[in-house]
Amino acid sequence: MKQKMNTFFKDEKKIFCLFVIVILLFSTLVPTLSLGQSQETTTPSSELLSEKVSKYDELLSSTERVEEASVESNTNGSRESISLEESTKESATTSQEIQTFQGKAIAGDILSSVVVNDWELFRDKNGSRESLTTEPKSTAASNQAYTFGFSWTIVAEKLERNLLPGDYFVLEIPQVEDSNSGHWYSPGSAWSTITIDTEEGPKPVYRYRIEHSTEKDKQVVRVEFLDGVDQLHINTLDTELEFPGFMNYVMKEGTQQVTFGQDKDGNALAKAITFEKTPLNAANGFSYKFGGAASNNTIQWGIQFNGAANVELGGDEVNYSVNGGAGSQNQGFYLNKPDRDVWNPWGSHYTDVDAPIGKEGGGELGGYVEDVLPAGAELAALTIAAYIQIPIGLTPENYNQQTGVYPSSVAGYQSFVLADYGSGPTYRSGSDTEAILKPKVGTGFSLLTQGTGETKAAFKQRIQSTPYQYGVYKEASGVSTVMMHYGSLKKADNQQQKLSELTTNPYTGRTITNPISNQSVNITEFAAQAADFSIKLGYYAEEDRELLENYYSITYGDSNVIKGASASYNISLAIRYPPETPSGEIENTSEIYTHSALTLNRPTPEEMPKRNTGKADLQNPYGSISLNANQALLQKFDVERDANDGYIPINGAKFKLQVKNGTKWTDVKKSDEVVYFTTDGISYYEIENGVTVEKIANGLVKVDFSALGLADGTYRFVEIEAAAGYDEENSPNWNGEAVVSDEFAIPSATSRGPTVAVWNKKLPQAKYTVKHYVQKNEGSTAKDNFRLDKTEEKSGYIGQKIIGEPLLELLTSYNYSEVLSIEHGLIEGRVTADGELIIELYYTIAAEVPFTFYKQGLNGDMMPSVDSNGNQLFDEEGREKKVVFDIYEYIGPDRPVTYPDGTGPKSKPGDWNKLYTVTTDALGRIRVPEINDPAELAKYYAIVEVETYPGYVLPENDLNSSDREVYWVVRLSDETMFSMPSWAHGTEVDKPDFEKPSSSNGNRYILKNRKPEISLFKVNERNEPMPSSDKQKVQFDIYRWTAGGYFNENDPYYWSPQWMKLDSNVTTDNQGYFASIGKTGLSGSENKNFDWYAIRETSTYSGYQLAEGYWLVKTGWNPTTQQFEIFEVKYKVVQGNGGIDAESPGHKISDDKKDLYFTNKVTATSFYKEDGQQNPLGGVHFSLYKPKAGEAGETGSEDPEAVNTKWDLTKPIEKISSESNSDKGKVTFEDLIQGDYLLVETKTLPGYQLPLGSWIITINFYGDIEAIKGRGDPLPPAFRVEAGNYYLPNYLINSLPKAGGYMRVALVVLGIVLLGSGIILSQNRKKYK
């Protein structure tokens, strides 16, 4: 029985093991049973992905749970940081208008609704409130911090709607009346969020902070309303805000009006504040680095070097045991301690300093500083100035004792020992008047240049071999090191230049006796200049002048302990960064190898070199040009710099694009032809004073690889034709065969596409001379009858052929004679290096020609047909630029009439006699010398324009299409002049302009021409051009209203003859441009006066909605602005037999009314939800998240639970798959523009598994789905694609998925089976034993 029982128990263990395995298998095969049940209740869209993962993980074995504990802990840590409020605080999105649909309100700037009730500046001093603006008022202490507070109200009557998420307003911080006297300053603040409590927890209502304005020394208070305001349903708000840490940087003593905000009438609230005089602060003597002024691509860095030496000469000394060491305010020096006993006589105390490391080649190293520049950065300028400081507390009493005085942080005198502005050291001249003078000739720092093959160590050794030497060493990587060596700074054998040697004259001639040492002291010129500066700043009075001169001469002059040597220096480095460097914060670190009195006397001397880092914001206009990952930017620059040391862009350089295939480069072709690009200007936008301003950056090529249909790969630009005057082989980018750019990858690894720069060097130039001789008296053409009238000094490229060009200004009174120029002078030659080429041109006196008319085009420019040599002019496309007129004499009855049509030379040839056909000359004139006697001048003449420049409007004179004739009529005897307008059934629609002679126009007759400049463009939602390519096209049909005497806007575009089709399927170019319109029409009160066009879109990108209707564009000539302008744009759709008004898909007229930008909406992005058998599933919930605005959305993590996630989780777009039979399972998201989106399934149907993980959907430039990528662990099910549609499966709880992320489930099942098998084998093994 016992044996049976044992056997039973043994078998029972096997049965139990099998039972456990079955249970585990069952729970694994239906792992989402409990999860599916939980999903029957509503899952909030804000539920985090980690919560879903944790629910799933609870079903795994305890062994697996232990193994994943560390991962789960990390996930939980991330999850805790993603609360709604924290996400709002961390998001640095800029305020943007929230566009709503069909008449709903739009969020935006609500400043006009904000009223500031009151404001105050105050501080807490010794427990009591000290107010600057409320009685009893205190005076404002300079360089002190105050708290700024204000109360404000949103006025419902002004707002006229409820507050919306996205509303914002901006107020400048308090502004002083005299901006030159200084300003208030706030260091800025992080976002602070105001929340309300709801049943669902706290909700953010608005946030606020101090941020920097685009204007210098100005900050603003910015308030932005958040999602929580939607739950309040309010149109008014009263609240107060406070900001601590407002610094008073006003230097001017006295009372000023300070303004902030606006009252109910829109006026600023002004309060009187009394400011104290700016006190001098004691210098602490530390060497430090700081970022100063910044301009395009350049930052000016500053370094204060060995400032402790001047503090010592001022009577102080370092004692860390008394003054507390690092962390103490005084940092080793006594400074302004009033109770101190240590007052060294002025100029007597100085610590010998040295550099323990950094000397190349052995020996002792004196003052030495290095500054490392990143690859591609260049030293644009370097200045080093010796300086001394204005004293604090100088009085006649303490002068005699030489106590109680210490140097301030304000320089009283500076003089350069180096002034290099990019071309080596410069020196002062006798006419220099700068506040800081350049070195005298033969003094100061000397420049050493890097030798071929020289190592960095060898170059450094040369720099350190002699005092006052500097240079820049450039490594093969492009990294540069600026090296500055000062030499010995010790008392004995000090190698610094004396301060008295820096002035033009060393001494003033006055001598005093030092009251402490009884030494004779010469008053130095630098001391006199420092005294004058101290008095002008208001720190001392005129009666203190000699006292100041004495102090400066004793402390820093020739009689001090270092014999008047310069002890402290201000270093300024202007660093030019590569043009591809993005805008933003830049760091720069200097290495100071020399101890100062402060670092040497520390209990533990500071480690050398001392590394000081500064930060500054770089501004780069080229960084403002938008680039997506499939776009590249080529920059073309001159290796030289302009007068302001800026980059010189080069337009007109021609490039081709090459793609890398293995190790070979091949030309990029389209339709078997090489694709070429020419550098030119590209528009970008900057905010100036709160206004968006369009600007042009030149020397650029922007290539959109998607638009061109080019494959991903490695590319480079190759120059095939340099711009005129540039030498290809001297370019730093010359590879022995061509000028080539760096190679780059498409798409780029970052969200911003690659930028490459290419440089060219101008050909060597030399001067040449052009002399112009004019005839003295009419008749003789002998050489002695000519006098030299004008001489031109010009430059050309050596070897360049020069053909003399007659001066246009001389052609108004003289005729150029090529025959006489050849006979008496020289009309052509080649530029030589010696500059001896002299061109000599000769002119004869021109007879007066009364019949002279100037032809004027756009912007008042004349319209010549030839150059001064008589050569035909051509435009950039090779078309002739020619203006031709027919001249007719009136021979009809009485005089010509101005009305009606049909009276012109072509309509009535019997009334007009054609005399001449003339072309404009080099001055843009037409001249008929034959019309000159009184009888001829008393006749009427018609001037009919028969040919004009490409792109200009030729006045209508074609009787085949109408009886309209447009021309000018003139009678010179009495200066009668009028133009014959174009009429249309009694309506004047065109009339050529002219000017009669007057003092304002040089007593000229001027005929004016018109150029249609209204350009049509197609852009997307981000105002980016929508170019056409072989892959995707944007095309339009263009119609013009030609019916005369009336205009009916409801006649549809296809009605003929009212509308005439001008162009069919015109295609956008790389800038989105597709046509120019505007030929006639005058601004007036009736629509029939204008020139009307119908613009109909015929094709667009596959991911964009094709415009259903068409745009009506109303144009005409504006006599005031002298240009064709857009006066109105309407949108129509055809209904029945007419056109009716409709909502425009989008259009925008430029500020100058000359450009019209059409936009379209993207098509909806959709997919279908289905089960495992591809049956549609309705009622499934999804959330879609957009990236955060700005850099956070570009560089953040794709992980939605990461602290730095790129996704804005506060604003999900909620959608449910359709349950309608017509489109069951369809999920649709509207308005998804180019970019990435995070898709999360948040609720599924009962009995179905809720997918884990998420999907990243990428929308391309054309508005189509480019890719869908699953993310997470495990991965979610994969989308399937069929016939261009996307399908996303869900699986039943008891059904394993065929694809996607559930492989992990299968692995768990397999693991449990193996585990169970192991247990059984173990039991059997024991049995056999």
TrEMBL record:
Transmembrane: present as a keyword of the record? yes
Indicate yes or no for the key word Transmembrane helix: yes
Which UniProt keywords are listed?
A: Membrane, Transmembrane, Transmembrane helix
Q: Where is this region: Disordered?
A: 65-96
Q: What's one Pfam family the UniProt record gives for this protein?
A: SpaA
Record field: transmembrane: 1301-1321
* Residue ranges annotated for the SpaA-like prealbumin fold domain, each copy included: 1166-1262
The record's section on InterPro entries has: Ig-like_fold, SpaA_PFL_dom_1
Q: Where is the composition biased (Polar residues)?
A: 71-96
Q: Which domain of life is it from?
A: Bacteria
Write down what this protein is called: SpaA-like prealbumin fold domain-containing protein
